[in-house]
Amino acid sequence: MHEFDARISGNRGIALKKLRQIGGSICAPHGFRAGAVFCDIKRLGTGKGSEKGRKNDLALIVSDFSAAVAGMFTTNQLRAAPVRLSAKRAALTFARAIVANSGNANACTGARGLRDAEQMCSLAADALHLNKNDVLVCSTGRIGISIPMENVTRGIKACAPLLASSSQNARATADAIMTSDTRRKEVAVEFKIGKSPVRIGGICKGAGMIEPKMTRTGALHATMLAFITSDAAIAPALLKRALGIAVRQSFNCISIDGDMSTNDAVIALANGAAENAKITSAGSESFRDFQRALNLVTLALAKMIVRDGEGATRFVTLRVTGVGSSRDADAVARAIAKSALAKTSWHGGDPNWGRILCAIGYSGAAVNESRVSIGYSSPRQPKIIFGFRCGKPTSTSILQLANIVSGPEFDIHISLDAGTAGTTFYTSDLTEDYVSFNKGDMSDPESLGG
Amino acid sequence: MHEFDARISGNRGIALKKLRQIGGSICAPHGFRAGAVFCDIKRLGTGKGSEKGRKNDLALIVSDFSAAVAGMFTTNQLRAAPVRLSAKRAALTFARAIVANSGNANACTGARGLRDAEQMCSLAADALHLNKNDVLVCSTGRIGISIPMENVTRGIKACAPLLASSSQNARATADAIMTSDTRRKEVAVEFKIGKSPVRIGGICKGAGMIEPKMTRTGALHATMLAFITSDAAIAPALLKRALGIAVRQSFNCISIDGDMSTNDAVIALANGAAENAKITSAGSESFRDFQRALNLVTLALAKMIVRDGEGATRFVTLRVTGVGSSRDADAVARAIAKSALAKTSWHGGDPNWGRILCAIGYSGAAVNESRVSIGYSSPRQPKIIFGFRCGKPTSTSILQLANIVSGPEFDIHISLDAGTAGTTFYTSDLTEDYVSFNKGDMSDPESLGG
Fold it and tell me: Which end of chain B has fewer CB atoms surrounding its CB within 10 Å, N or C?
């Protein structure tokens, strides 16, 4: 896992012996099973099917034991029915299972949408012999079209008997939630709490309509979904706390196209099967170790989403420092990450710090022009080269900066020299391919309204 | 003027006999002269010239009489030196002239930038035998590069003797301020105050980095600039009031790419040469007539900018109604106008109200899903056809809506049914050509940092 290694090498203080990446994802932790089937959810919803759509589209993830549950959900006010329902259930203490589908977001589907989301949980509960309140639901795909419940019903019934704890099943699950994604996204780690080996695994999806801002009670379409499993024994309140912290430094620090979906959700289940001494204090070493591992897992998954951004050719890390407040730091990062002009310039290998300055200026953050600096670095050019320093252009040749920006991955260092707050934010370029991919095609009605 | 006629036909109550469009632009009002020259402002700033850049790039606009002055300027915090200077002078009561250039924005150029902007005013004042405090300055072009004052000096000296009140000179002036614009933007009207014929004329530029939010004290690169002249006799305070109202319903209601420039400025001069009974009361009929004419001129110019949007193939009017507050109405319109996914969908002729719903949901405006309606109309299809009504998709075929959205011009009607506020906002689609135009080209260093 490229993301993962980079992060560890950047934190030399971490005792690597205590944490290592392992194979697999959501089935790596003990006591979890998963599986996926194809039940043609997109076809009936749009009246027409196509061979290209014949990928798995419904998945189940089940914990064999009652698991502490936590969730973070979109803050889009038009949040989808499954988000509304799952946010309620993630606010409880324990849960057992997640039913997830691609092909239909069950968003903007009114009262029927809520009934359908409830029904999906009930169907999964019945098939798995669980209480329906122990099942959460997530959907991604088209919005404003009711989800075809006949297909969902068939899919859940077909999926339940197939569940297994194999990494093959975990991969099938990761594939089932993909929409415009071109790559499967999964990761797992193992570390120790006391003498007990503990595992955290995760899968996620997302490539467009990506600028999540999630909260516990939140509300947001292509959507990002992430499912995290762990066999750690941890108090539900602490799992919720840890997930909030982890999401704020990962999924909430990415933007591909600036569109916040109606369906973004991250759900974590921790079932205690590792039999570690239960984590019950936020001040404990075991909580810190769990938090660190969860941060690594969520950040690795979040970066995979940005790397798979629709049409993207650049992976850009914005390192914002010297800002007056965290809120301002976030505003600066988001303004740059969402600037059509900054993003297109990167696509052409143009450093164009002028467009970055412009975005800083309208971000709303407090800024003094004479103190602003903008520099560039990359894995092959780790020393920061400034294009603009302390309010003035440097004498650095634009071609030297362009060499960095024409690579597939680079960092932009922005300092306002106005305080001590900062943030690290991940984004991509804006390309002709993004536009081509997302524009409809009237000759193919199937492509419209997607 | 297409824009202009459309607006009038939409206001049947207006006594057309009192207001008519006339030829020309800023030199149509009596007592104004203008002119432009080429002095190669871009060449020296970047160390390389090209034949394609040999268009006029410096202009002067002069009133033969002391004129009431008003200005609205970018709210970007990193506002350019000429904006800082002109905002101060527009806060005074009277002025005589404007010096404007393209090719260099004189933005993010530190203390030298401010001295250069002052110097431009002084040079123009000397050449025109005016007081330097009576001269305002506007610049547009690259940012972060000091403006080549030798060229500017040569240009101002060459331009001053050429000034004339011909429409040819007005056109040359409109051309001189163009950057990525593909079309000249100019308009003029005549109406009566009492028995006196009064004229208002205007020119503007802008095609990218367009989402102006201007105030009187404001602070924003491709930039929008507009210069309005009138021979009305009007109290300076009322000209400022009228310009504020006019800009809020025109230039502040457009977005091409969502990037607010460091240089946006609108400057109005009214010199009293029409010898009308001076407008001295905001409650007077003459003020209302002046306001209406100014609104028409600014709206016509603002729409020309959107129609000339970089790479744009659609002119989209967002008609937002039933919103709880004006602030929310503005938030809804801007969220849709800035959504990369909504804008790309239009490019393909895809109505995709799902993406519009998504943008409404994250706009921050108070919204109740079950009350939202989204409809489409166009000049050839004036009846509104709803795709989503009162929280539910309609049975309208997506192809019927796609027929509207695949045209060059259409309206999207958004009602939240949550209040009485609303707004009308103008925007364009996001196309592959926008990306191609704005990405740099490393094989042509001249294209970088633009």
Answer: N
Query: In the numeric block, which tokens belong to residue B165?
Result: 């009140």
Pick the catalytic residue: B179, B223, B262, B317? B223
- Condensed to tens digits (0 to 9), the pLDDT of residues B264-316 reads 999 999 999 999 999 999 999 999 999 999 999 999 999 999 999 999 999 99
- Domain borders along chain B are 16-307, 315-430
Q: Nearest chain A Cα to B104, which residue?
A: A354
A4 token code pair: 């993962």
- At residue B22, the 3 state secondary structure works out as coil
Q: Residues A385-418: pLDDT tens digits?
A: 999 999 989 999 989 999 999 999 999 999 999 9
Residues of A in contact with B209 (CB under 8 A): 341, 355, 358
Superfamily holding B16-307: L-amino peptidase D-ALA esterase/amidase (3.60.70.12)
Active-site residue, selected from the candidate residues A74, A109, A173, A223: A223
Residues of A in Cβ contact (< 8 Å) with B432: 432, 435-436
CA neighbor of A226 nearest in space, from A186, A166, A280, A266? A266
Task: Quote the ipTM score.
Answer: 0.88
- Sequence-distant (≥ 6) Cβ neighbours of residue A37 within 8 angstroms: A56, A57, A58, A59, A155, A158, A159, A162, A176
Angle, helices A285-307 vs A236-248, to 10°: value is 40
Contacts with A353 from chain B: Cβ below 8 Å = 144, 449
What does chain B come to in residues?
450
User: Under CATH, which number does the domain A14-307 receive?
Assistant: 3.60.70.12
Place of tokens 């430094």: A249
Q: Find the CB nearest A78 among B258, B350, B357.
A: B357
Residue recorded with tokens 């109740």: B368
To the query of whether residue A420 is one of the catalytic residues in this protein, the response is: no
Q: How far is CA B125 from CA A271, B103, B120, B132, B236, in A?
A: 79, 22, 9, 5, 21
Q: What is the DSSP letter of A341?
A: H
Record: contact A359-B450, CB cut-off 8 A: no
What is the number of CB-based contacts under 8 A between chain A and chain B? Answer: 253
Whether pTM > 0.80 for this model: the answer is yes
**Of B75, B108, B208, Cβ closest to residue A369:** B108
Selected from 3.20.20.150, 3.30.70.1350, 3.10.20.340, 3.40.630.30, the CATH number assigned to the domain covering A315-430 reads 3.10.20.340
